[in-house]
């Protein structure tokens, strides 16, 4: 008897699994105002960030397909909207353009492999909006954009029955479900790629009220930890990498066995603006007094609130120049 029950249970699970992997939309499309509906499944996100340093060539690009109970035939058109966000400040939403059903390709998207479902002939299109186009529609220029801003794109689908579908009337399943993948809303971040990592010839001259004026020369490395945050490494007299935020100043002022600053000290790059983050193992806070870029050389005048200070010059060894930097 137990074997029969287990067999029946396994059959039910198999039937449910098979039915849950189809693209049937009647009645499996849960919108707030409709029992069945139409949605735009995101098949591929080709570009969802704008490079602050290259806005002229930046774009937002996605591939979507139309899913409905008639194989996509209910689609009439899609409107694209955009608004600009900085923190909690939002611009008015403006229209970018309208895409009609004629702009959708009738064949399946090439090399389509998601989701695993029997029906794959839904019409699809690639939607691309350049940063230049978005800025123009918003009445903005590149000079109005800051790193960390967002451009929020919204799609609004209209079907042949006169219904409208967007992020305003979708359910959580349509918005966040991996199978539907149909948010109708895409937030594009303005990012500032940071490429300050490298190995540098270093000279550090101690200054400030601690009374040390000795000079250290050697090798310093900046290691990118991600998102423009850098760990600072100095190579000691034995050729061993050491985490050393003083970039050699401690060794010439306190000796080769000195305990280095440690802690969670880092340098962060936000669109060419450098800042110190974290504190040393003793709670010391660091700050910049000056930053000077001269081709392959970067000179940093730094100090901490204990009174330790130095001027460090880092010369690139990769033949590249430092970018423009400030603090």
Fold blueprint:
Elements: H1 2-20, E1 39-47, E2 49-51, E3 59-67, E4 75-86, E5 89-90, E6 94-100, E7 124-130, H2 131-138, E8 150-159, E9 164-165, H3 172-176, E10 185-191, E11 198-207, E12 215-226, E13 229-235, E14 241-243, H4 249-254, E15 266-270, E16 273-277, E17 286-294, E18 297-304, E19 309-316
Question: What percentage of amino acids are in beta strands?
Answer: 35-45%
Separation of the first and last Cα atoms = 76 Å
Named at the architecture level, the CATH assignment of the largest domain is: Sandwich
Computed structural class = mainly beta
Mean pLDDT: 85
**How many domains make up the coordinates?**
2
Text of the CATH class of the largest domain: Mainly Beta
User: How large is the count of helical segments?
Assistant: 4
Please write the string of helix (H) and strand (E) elements.
HEEEEEEEHEEHEEEEEHEEEEE
Could you explain how this protein is built, in words?
It is built from four helices and 19 strands. By secondary structure, it is mainly β. The protein folds into two domains: 170 residues, Immunoglobulin-like, CATH 2.60.40; 119 residues, Lipocalin, CATH 2.40.128. Strands 11, 12, 13, 14, 15, 16, 17, 18 and 19 form a nine-stranded antiparallel sheet that branches. Strand 13 and strand 14 form a beta hairpin. The termini are far apart.
């Amino acid at each position: 008897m137990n074997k029969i029950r287990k067999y029946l249970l396994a059959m039910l699970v198999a039937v449910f699994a098979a039915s849950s992997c189809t693209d049937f939309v009647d009645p499996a499309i849960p919108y707030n105002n409709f029992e069945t509906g139409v949605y735009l499944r995101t098949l591929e996100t080709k570009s969802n960030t704008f490079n602050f340093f290259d806005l002229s060539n930046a774009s937002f690009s996605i591939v979507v397909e139309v899913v409905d109970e008639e194989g996509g035939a209910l689609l009439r058109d899609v409107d694209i909207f955009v608004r600009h966000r900085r923190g909690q400040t939002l611009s008015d939403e403006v229209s970018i353009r309208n895409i009609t059903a004629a702009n959708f390709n009738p064949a399946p998207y090439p090399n389509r492999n998601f989701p695993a479902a029997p029906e794959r002939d839904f019409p699809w299109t690639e939607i691309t909006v350049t940063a230049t186009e978005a800025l123009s529609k918003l009445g903005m220029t590149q000079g109005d954009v800051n790193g960390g801003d967002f451009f929020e794109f919204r799609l609004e689908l209209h079907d042949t029955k006169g219904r409208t579908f967007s992020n305003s009337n979708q359910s959580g399943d349509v918005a966040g479900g991996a199978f539907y993948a149909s948010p109708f809303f895409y937030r594009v971040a303005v990012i500032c790629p940071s490429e300050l990592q490298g190995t540098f010839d270093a000279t550090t001259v101690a200054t400030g009220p601690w009374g040390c004026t000795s000079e250290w020369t050697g090798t310093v490395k900046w290691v990118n930890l991600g998102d423009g945050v850098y760990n600072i490494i100095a190579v000691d007299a034995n050729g061993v990498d050491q985490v050393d935020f003083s970039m050699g100043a401690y060794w010439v002022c306190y000796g080769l066995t000195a305990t280095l600053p440690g802690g969670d000290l880092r340098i962060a790059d936000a669109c060419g603006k450098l800042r110190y983050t974290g504190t040393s193992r003793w709670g010391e806070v660091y700050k910049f007094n000056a930053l000077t870029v001269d081709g392959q050389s970067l000179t940093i005048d730094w100090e901490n609130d204990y009174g330790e200070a130095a001027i460090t010059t880092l010369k690139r060894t990769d033949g590249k120049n430092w970018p423009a930097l400030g603090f």
